[in-house]
Input
Amino acid sequence: MLTRRALLAGGASLAVAGVTAPRTVRAAARRAPLRDLFRLGVASGEPAPDGMVLWTRLATDPLAPDGLGGMPRRPVPVRWQLAEDENFRRVVRHGTETARPEAAHSVHVELEGLDPGAEYFYRFRAAGDLSETGRTLTAPAPGSRSRALNLSFTSCADYQSGWFTAYRRMAEDHPDLIAFLGDYIYEYGDYEHRVRDQAGGECLDLAGYRLRHAQHKTDPDLRAAHAIAPWAVVWDDHDVRNAWAGDVPRRRRAAAFRAYYENMPLRRAQRPAGAALRLYRSVRWGAVANLHLLDTRQYRDPYACTGRSGTVGPDCAERLAPGRTILGPEQQDWLDAELRESRATWDLLGQQVFMMGMDWARGPAEGWSNEGWDGYVASRDHLAATVDAHRRNAVVLTGDVHSHWAGQISRDHRDPGSKPVAVELVTTSVTSAGDGRDEYPDTRNLLAENPHVRFFNGRRGYVRTRISRREMRVDFRSLAYVTRPHAPAHTSGSFVIEPGDPALNPA
Output
């Protein structure tokens, strides 16, 4: 049953028709008073001990084909409030921001000077319209280990593939933080067999990416998840183009980056400069955990051997080449410093693609994905050595592969049975790949050939964790179906990880 806060987060959703109004009607609407401005909901993100980012984007017609949400080409003042209570009797901050047409009428309010470890509520008002209310939090004070972190994470939300019920189930858990690990949208055109119809074709320009983001934001389950807790986001390939590895034309990349920033609760530090956007950064939760968010797309070397993503065999020596990188030198140096200087109990690495070694071939043959870290072995060896040298309690949080996995990352890539230095938790998708199955015909053989992998489930869903200085508790949450709405979530696997021991213990 939904609690009052979950209803608060999701109950103000608005139905959006999938029919585009005639041009004359649009022109009349631009001259008329603005109404129903907050159809894309509200969001917060990037919690710090003294603040966070509050976000909204104005749209009267989210599915307008020009990507501008039916808004007039003029600035609109937007008032915001932050309160200690959800009835807004104790307002602690307020102000006005300008939603500008060149930013698709998005608003990013970057707050500082708030109390650490506190819960707040926020809302927006514009042209007489009032938004729904969002809940957000500040992180605990630096050095504090008294407050656990309730973190949920997921990835891969393809609108055409199903219903976003996993977002609603995450919201019902009331997490402190939601990490989204890539593929918030899919850039594809229409599928022949689809569960839901999307607006627009393949995303190729700024209007297309803006429209796809807007349609996702009209989904009430996604809006509930955004409104219940702050988010920390990174992208993967479909946020730009399938399997991209730095090879997307600059104009398309710039369009995707700009739309991504406009539609996410990111700080000014993440504002794109044309076809460049620095997305790697850390979110700190006192001295309990650091969440290091990595970008494995923008700086990677081209795919090994074949030049395209896929599986390569033992004859692909290029994947083992020294200096081959998935992070790029600047990001790798930054991560080295973060791990070297960390004093947190846990270091969480939020990223996109399989890090642990994985032989995907059956029987005596060998087959390695050159899209994951198996295609960039020098990067994985470097990171494993850094984690080991600084004795960090590292847990890798991964998306991309549309199924739940859990396993260990070894110190030596040549020997999967060598000393484990980190645990990897892979979340399934929100919808991508449809309903899925708990187990596939070859699942047991695959696990037997990769003994460092301890768990698999092929349904849709998310991962729920509770992280304290004593332990990290992990629940893999699965949904039986997404081709219909309202599926309940169940726990398909649970583990406990203890500091100093990179192992998956039964809960």
Summary: The longest helix spans residues 250-262. The chain has a mean pLDDT of 93. The first strand starts at residue 42 and ends at 48.
